[in-house]
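Service request form, structural biology core

Requester: graduate student, group of Dr. S.
Request type: structure prediction, single chain
Budget code: on file
Notes: please return the result as structure tokens.

Sequence provided:
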Amino acid sequence: MAAVPMGLGKVVLYEKRHDHVAVITLNRPEVRNAINGVVTETLAYLVEETERDDDVRAVVLASSHDTVFCAGADLGEISRGNVASLMTAEGGFAGVVRAPRTKPWIAAVRGAALAGGCEIMLSCDMIVASTDARFGLPEVKRGLYAGAGGPYRLMHALPRAIALELIATGDPLDAGRAYALGLVNRVVASDLVRDEALGLASKITANAPMSVRESIAVARETADKDEAAFWALSNVVRDRVHSSQDAKEGARAFLEKRVPQWVGR
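Core staff response, request fulfilled:
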């Protein structure tokens, strides 16, 4: 396990709740939560920590800023030639956009999630957004390229024509249209975003953790597979989940009309 980074509790906040939900909060409001080396190191550490901790079953990624989720890369770091500090070998940009994760992540987005901030959001599995949220990849307006997975993930999350328009124009998508197109799960008032994301996470953590992890893994992996490949993978996972202790406990709890006591195995 890596040493606890200096940014923990400062530029990135961490809270583990009683309902098996971990909350990670970006906390550089003075620079619109721009990603620097310390934030990257801390987020990478927390990805590893939440994966290691069996008591954590879902993660909410939030912002301490009222109107900005994340502005993307810290241009000050880039101007000083510190681009490499904004990524890790395993996790990519901010230590998260490519990081292998077995547990569901929910982005709680208030206001703008643009450029790298949008790409961090898109690396999460679900999104709860405020009514004033905006999403986009404005890199083309600055002669840059969205290299943290944005074009790829938008093409998988939106209809082809809409995704290509956003990528080529750099114009943002508002929360209402994003919800109608299926990019986000919930749209609520800004002051309710965190609670709504926590509520969604709690619904997930009430379920059998192994079943959730394996089901999410199949869903992620088969997005680009044909049906035959899906069934091959699905059959392996089905056998693994159905032979677990939680599968037996779920059946017993149903018959005994009580709340299941999951063990994650």
